[in-house]
Write a structure and sequence with these properties.
39% helix; 6 helices; two-stranded antiparallel sheet; DinB/YfiT-like; DinB family protein; Four Helix Bundle (Hemerythrin (Met), subunit A); mainly alpha
Amino acid sequence: MTEFHEQDLAGAHFERVSLRGATFDHVRLNDATMQAVDFTGVRIRGALFGESRMRGVGLIDVEISGELRNVVVNGVDIAPLVEAELNRRMPERAKMAPDDSDGFREAWAILERLWDGTIARARTFPEVTLHRSVDDEWSFIQTLRHLNLVSAGWVDRMVLGNASPWHPLDLPWDEAPGWDDIPWDREAQPSLDEVLTVRRERQAMVRRVMESLTDEQLGTEVTRSEPGWPRMEDFPFKECLRIVLNEEWEHRLYAERDLTLLEKEN
């Protein structure tokens, strides 16, 4: 098996080459041109397709999960259609992009209520099952660990100014670049209660921010220049909180999906 590690293959030409079963990790394919390429069975995670053009493509039995904006399929921008259908199926989803302080408080209350139900459902499983990966995705407990990182980064660090708010069990996303001061132990096996202890503290922190939130604050910007993550200049205060809402909403759906699959396996 040929291995390429930290090599610059820019401008390389592959013709009638088999890459079946190959693994691409942190690979840049910017401005690449692909013609008559077979993607059957390919799994792609953490990818960015900005400004991509696909012609003569057959999308058959394809599943796509991610952010859609200006996605034109056969002349139709499907992103608004997908948004409308998701909001029709889940009316509370539309409340996850609030513009005023009351809307943020309502959205957070919805999320806490929904997560209470998901946690109660998870407790009906043997704890070893909550450490099981489903379809190469995070386990239930890993999902909670990641959400702990999200609230620490976007609320404790960006909003409240704590430069290093991390807990040893916090979990970055798999494609993250890595930072010296942020824990990243993907294989840790903490109990559900250990992770929930941290989560309750983080949820209470976010709740306090929401309770004291004003419309004037939502119009401001924040800057965090210290090393680590997030590291942003003049970033909208509102977007920090919206990111947390979105992460909480989407990852609960993933968790519920995976719990359903685990039920079918048992």
